[in-house]
Design brief:
- This protein is of the alpha/beta class.
- It has one domain: Rossmann fold (3-Layer(aba) Sandwich), CATH 3.40.50.1980.
- The protein has six helices and six strands, in the order ααββαβββαβαα.
- Strands 3-1-5-6 form a four-stranded parallel sheet, sandwiched between helices.
- Helix 2 packs parallel to helix 6.
- The protein is globular, with a radius of gyration of 16 Å.
- It starts with a helix and ends with a helix.
Length: 152
C-alpha cells in the first residue's frame, strides 16, 4: 500500500519511509520464535463478536504466533468476517488469551470479568484496537505494540 501511494506526486519520500519501517517491524516479528497461542479477539458485546482468520486483525495477531479463534474464514466482505459467539462453544475453554479491543466497541475494565467467565483459562486484557485494526500508516506501530504484548 505504501509503495502504491509512493507513486503519487509529493508523497514518495514519506511512503518509502513508512514502507521501510514496516518491513523492519515485520522482520523483527519474523526473527523471534513465538510460542503459539489461541486468541479470542473480541470486537463487540451483546452479542459477543470476534474476527475471522482472514481479516487484517487476525493476520496481525499471526505475526506474533497468535492464532485467532474460531477457526473460520469470513470471506472478502460481509458479516461472516465477524463471527458471533453464543458463549457455549467448547473451544472457549482452550483459549490462551482474550483481547478486548477498544475498537469498534470500547471495552474497558468493567468487561474483564465477563470475558474471563467466557474463557476461564485465558489471560484477559484490554488492547488498543486502533493500533491492531487500522492498517496503513499505523501498521508498523501496531506490530511493535503487538510484539510488546506478546513479550509480557
Amino acid at each position: 500500500m505504501a509503495d502504491a501511494f509512493g507513486a503519487l506526486p509529493g508523497v514518495r519520500e514519506r511512503a518509502e519511509a513508512l514502507a521501510q519501517v514496516l518491513r523492519a517491524e515485520l522482520a523483527r516479528c519474523a526473527a523471534q520464535p513465538w510460542p503459539a497461542q489461541r486468541v479470542l479477539y473480541l470486537i463487540w458485546r451483546e452479542p459477543w463478536m470476534t474476527v475471522a482468520r482472514d481479516t487484517y486483525i487476525a493476520r496481525m495477531l499471526a505475526q506474533v504466533g497468535w492464532q485467532s479463534w474460531p477457526a473460520v474464514e469470513g470471506g472478502e466482505t460481509g458479516a461472516a468476517r465477524y463471527p458471533v459467539l453464543v458463549g457455549t462453544e467448547p473451544w472457549l475453554g482452550q483459549i490462551d488469551r482474550v483481547l478486548l479491543s477498544s475498537e469498534p466497541y470500547r471495552f474497558d475494565e468493567t468487561h474483564l470479568a465477563l470475558a474471563q467467565a467466557l474463557c476461564p483459562q485465558a489471560r484477559v486484557q484490554l488492547v488498543d484496537g486502533e493500533l491492531l485494526s487500522w492498517y496503513g500508516p499505523r501498521a508498523a506501530q501496531g506490530l511493535a505494540y503487538l510484539r510488546g504484548l506478546a513479550q509480557r
